[in-house]
Design a protein that fits this description.
With 283 residues, the protein is α/β, with parallel strands linked by helices. It has 2 domains: 132 residues, Rossmann fold (3-Layer(aba) Sandwich), CATH 3.40.50; 134 residues, NAD(P)-binding Rossmann-like Domain (Rossmann fold, 3-Layer(aba) Sandwich), CATH 3.40.50. It is built from 10 helices and 12 strands. A 6-stranded mixed sheet has the order 2-1-3-5-6-4, sandwiched between helices. Strands 9-8-7-10-11-12 form a 6-stranded parallel sheet, with helices on both faces. The longest helix is centred in the C-terminal third of the chain and has 18 residues. The chain is globular and about 60 Å long. Bound molecules: NADP nicotinamide-adenine-dinucleotide phosphate (NAP).
Length: 283
């Protein structure tokens, strides 16, 4: 059976990031585990899974462009990944590779830091893997969810599959008459573009109750134009990096069977963010 020494974990992405390396490495060290984490940049999904098998890599985070196509390469997927229709984590148990989705846990915990989600009404924008994980997390926590998406057909299908309603295109939020306690944005608009914003700030005021929470899944830059507009209007905000932190903690538990020290991971994430800001490089 293939194995590695030290234990090897990592991630596969078209564009490898720095946050996973920082958080997992710090958490391994804090627990004294003999393990390393490497962010692999690759477009070859099947090749990466074959390498995981051949080299005995214990765990891999999975992100764009692999999240949808990796399911075809593994030996099984867990219930949440099946419900969400995307895999963001692979675990190798003695050669058997299982696909999990812990993005929904990350979203649920991140949003749950700002608001008690149960019984609340949320609007979610987007119908991709990120939005689906957020809807699943909110639904599991007892929220009512209305999904908004540019393309009606995919929006309606995702909403129906996950127990949400479909509200129309994102612009329809301007007519929502302050009926939401929270709004979650999960499209690529604003990613690596601090000025881009899908919704005008007035739409937030029109759709949200006073004191509502706005979550932007876009993690880079950490303070997006949407979050800036939301806090300027008095809404609480949750940054996409909080979802990354909590989903990384859930991955760590799957890889090691141990609960990581969240404060250690949080500190490593903050240092990585500060380093990027210092370099003027919005990864
Ligand atoms: N923080 C985290 O841990 C985390 C985790 C997952 C994802 N994310 C972020 O969430 C965002 C979404 O990622 P994803 O993987 O779900 O899928 P994606 O492929 O990046 O986004 C697909 C969705 O975005 C919509 N969309 C794309 N461009 C749009 C535009 N210009 N105007 C309106 N809608 C647009 C699409 O609508 P149509 O159906 O009409 O095409 C579709 O619903 C990304 O920014 C990603 O980085 C963050």
């Amino acid at each position: 059976m293939a194995s590695s020494q030290p234990m090897l974990c990592g991630s596969i992405a078209g564009r490898p990031g720095v946050f996973g390396v920082a958080m997992h490495t710090a958490a391994f060290q804090a627990l004294g585990l003999n393990a390393v984490y490497v962010a692999f940049g690759t477009e070859d999904t099947a090749g990466a899974v074959a390498a995981m098998r051949a080299l005995g890599i214990r765990g891999l985070g999975v992100t764009t462009p692999h999240k949808l196509r990796v399911a075809a390469c593994v030996d099984g997927i867990d219930g949440a990944a099946a419900a969400i229709g995307a895999v963001n984590t692979l675990v190798n148990d003695d050669g058997r590779i299982t696909g999990y989705n812990v993005d929904w846990i990350g979203a649920q915990r991140a949003i749950g830091e700002a608001i008690d989600v149960s019984g609340r009404a949320f609007a979610v924008i987007g119908a991709g893997g990120g939005a689906r994980a957020i809807v699943h997390g909110l639904r599991q926590a007892g929220a009512r969810v209305t999904l908004y998406n540019r393309t009606a057909a995919s929006g309606e299908a995702v909403a129906a599959a996950l127990g949400a309603s479909f509200g129309g295109p994102p612009q329809a939020l301007a007519a929502a008459e302050r009926c939401y306690d929270g709004l979650c944005h999960a499209t690529p608009v604003g990613f690596h573009d601090a000025a881009a914003q899908l919704l005008p700030g007035e739409a937030l005021t029109a759709a949200l109750r006073p004191g509502a929470v706005v979550f932007d899944a876009v993690a880079m830059p950490p303070r997006t134009a949407l979050l800036a507009a939301a806090s300027a209007r008095g809404f609480r905000t949750v940054a996409g990096v909080r979802m990354q932190l909590h989903q990384a903690a859930a991955q760590f538990a799957l890889y090691t069977g141990r609960t990581p020290d969240l404060a250690v991971m949080e500190r490593a994430l903050a240092q990585a963010l500060a380093r990027i800001a210092g370099e003027g490089d919005e990864r």
